[in-house]
């Protein structure tokens, strides 16, 4: 393998393997990667226009039974600090968001054992009836997998019901690292990597726009990072031509390695 050849192939939009990605990650310079990244960006979005959206993170509930090792947000059912956000609290948050020029709620929460599809359908309908212009970027593959399991349903049925209730797009939350060696160690209670990707495939089939994430810098190897990218790319390649699929990729560095000492 040679850095120059791989960068040339990247510029030609050839699909590199995970191993080739690791080689580039370890052997090429940041400037070279930035150059190729910029060229690819100009190919896909050939102008100087960059867009963004102002949104607010809000949590549905902190009750969760997934027990992710890195999470200090969740509380077990029955804990004295457990909560489910009320409509009055949502109204306050949404109106503050609108006042500051925001237009979207990024709505996520724990895997509450008692909150099934009916709860989220009713919530989304109520928020949309109160604020028809509000964009709901809500839940994520692990929550969809959790609701699907509670309902003994399918990803497609759950997603369709949520879209009918007002879901506008699906965040790529909870991807962490898609490799199951890593997931078993840090987030065993969440859906596995295959299911995370299957939820996204189902969303794309329904023309629901999504994003993708990666939480990196903890116990994963460079190869597991690159395999994560390859698997996302495979799902994006399968999206229908008239679907956007993954519209954004959000990498998040793990803030500290300390929590992993509990593994
Ligand atoms: S799924 Fe994991 S990260 Fe999300 S709230 Fe539950 S424990 Fe925390």
Name its key features.
alpha/beta, TIM Barrel, 46% helix, binds iron/sulfur cluster
What does this structure look like?
The chain has 263 residues and is of the alpha/beta class. It has 10 helices and 6 strands. A 3-stranded parallel sheet has the order 1-2-3, with helices on one face. A 3-stranded parallel sheet has the order 4-5-6, with helices on one face. The radius of gyration is 20 Å and the shape is globular. The two termini are 36 Å apart. The relative contact order is 0.12. The chain binds iron/sulfur cluster. Iron/sulfur cluster binds at residues 64, 66-68, 71, 73-74, 110-111, 142, 187, 190. Residues 64, 66-68, 71, 73-74, 110-111, 142, 187, 190 line the site of iron/sulfur cluster.
At CATH level 3, the topology of the largest domain is TIM Barrel
> What characterizes the major β-sheet?
3 strands, parallel
- Bound small molecules, deduplicated: iron/sulfur cluster
Secondary-structure arrangement, i.e. CATH architecture of the largest domain? Alpha-Beta Barrel
How do the helices and strands follow one another from N- to C-terminus? Answer: HHHEHEHEHHEHHEHE
Top-tier CATH class of the largest domain:
Alpha Beta
Number of strands: 6
Care to give the gist of this entry?
This protein has 263 residues and is an alpha/beta fold. The chain has helices at 3-11, 18-27, 30-44, 87-99, 117-130, 141-151, 155-165, 180-186, 193-205, 222-238, and strands spanning 55-59, 104-108, 135-138, 169-170, 209-216, 246-253.
């Amino acid at each position: 393998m040679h850095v120059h050849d791989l960068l040339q192939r990247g510029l030609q939009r050839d699909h590199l393997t995970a191993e080739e990605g690791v080689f580039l990650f370890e052997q090429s310079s940041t400037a070279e990667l930035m150059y190729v990244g910029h060229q690819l960006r100009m190919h896909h979005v050939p102008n100087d226009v960059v867009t963004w959206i102002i949104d607010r993170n809000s949590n549905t509930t902190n009750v969760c039974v997934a027990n992710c090792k890195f999470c200090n947000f969740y509380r077990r059912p029955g804990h004295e600090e457990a909560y489910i956000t009320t409509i009055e609290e949502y109204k306050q948050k949404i109106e503050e968001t609108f006042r500051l020029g925001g237009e979207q709620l990024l709505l996520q929460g724990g895997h509450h054992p008692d909150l099934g599809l009916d709860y989220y359908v009713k919530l989304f309908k109520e928020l949309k009836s109160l604020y028809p212009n509000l964009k709901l970027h809500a839940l994520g593959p692990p929550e969809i997998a959790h609701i699907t399991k509670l309902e003994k349903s399918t990803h497609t049925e759950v997603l369709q019901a949520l879209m009918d209730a007002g879901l506008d797009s699906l965040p790529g939350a909870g991807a962490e690292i898609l490799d199951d060696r890593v997931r078993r160690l840090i987030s065993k209670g969440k859906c596995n990597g295959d299911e995370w990707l299957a939820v996204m495939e189902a969303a794309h089939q329904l023309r629901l726009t999504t994003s993708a994430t990666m939480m990196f810098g903890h116990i994963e190897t460079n190869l597991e990072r690159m395999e994560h990218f390859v698997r996302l790319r495979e799902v994006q390649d399968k999206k229908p031509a008239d679907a956007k699929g993954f519209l954004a990729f959000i990498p998040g560095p793990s803030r500290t390695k300390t929590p992993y000492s509990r593994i």
